[in-house]
């Protein structure tokens, strides 16, 4: 799968309703890919697909909640194992702090409750969605299994194996509580 060329490839972009996902869908569409825009908000996914089509690309949309990061990684590993012999590549993107409206749309709980203004300010200092989309395109072209974007994400990715499994599981459970 090395040397991936987006022209006429079918790509599925999660979170395509806005921010990084939208920028990525638009970039792949610009490079001639057939894009499937997936987002928890079906209307925004459809709007992105429509914008891709207005640029001459083939695009469709589907609503889907992919908020369970562990499930997404597990699914991607299964898809890579099952379909790699057929030329299908799957890349999981691990963005760092990206300038998107995420902190204005999520419910902050626990120690983060009441700190929305600080979160909004922190995200404004993050990488642009367009920069992340370019990193994603590069990662997919290399058939990267996992594509960290930004220094903070790269450091976390490199340190991940050093964290004991029991602590990773505890953090995953704490992060999945709503």
From TrEMBL:
SUPFAM superfamilies: NAD(P)-binding Rossmann-fold domains. InterPro entries: NAD(P)-bd_dom_sf (IPR036291), SDR_fam (IPR002347). The keyword Iron does not apply. The keyword Oxidoreductase applies. Keywords: Oxidoreductase. PANTHER family: DEHYDROGENASE/REDUCTASE SDR FAMILY MEMBER 7B, DEHYDROGENASE_REDUCTASE SDR FAMILY MEMBER 7B. Belongs to the short-chain dehydrogenases/reductases (SDR) family. This is SDR family NAD(P)-dependent oxidoreductase.
């Amino acid at each position: 799968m090395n040397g991936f060329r987006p022209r006429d490839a079918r790509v599925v972009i999660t979170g395509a309703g806005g921010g990084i996902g939208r920028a990525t869908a638009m970039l792949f569409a610009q490079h001639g890919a057939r894009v499937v825009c997936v987002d928890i908000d079906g209307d925004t996914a459809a709007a992105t697909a429509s914008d891709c089509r207005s640029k001459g690309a083939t695009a469709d949309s589907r609503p889907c909640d992919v908020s369970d990061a562990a499930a997404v990684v597990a699914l991607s590993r299964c898809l890579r194992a099952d379909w790699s012999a057929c030329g299908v590549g799957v890349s999981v993107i691990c963005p760092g702090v990206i300038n998107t409206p995420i902190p204005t749309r999520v419910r902050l709980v626990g120690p983060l409750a009441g700190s929305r203004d600080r979160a909004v300010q922190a995200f404004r200092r993050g990488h642009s969605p367009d920069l992340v989309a370019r990193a994603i395109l590069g990662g997919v072209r290399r058939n990267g299994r996992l594509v960290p974007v930004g220094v903070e994400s790269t450091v976390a990715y490199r340190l991940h194996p050093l964290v004991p499994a029991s602590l990773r599981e505890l953090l995953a459970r704490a992060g999945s509580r709503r």
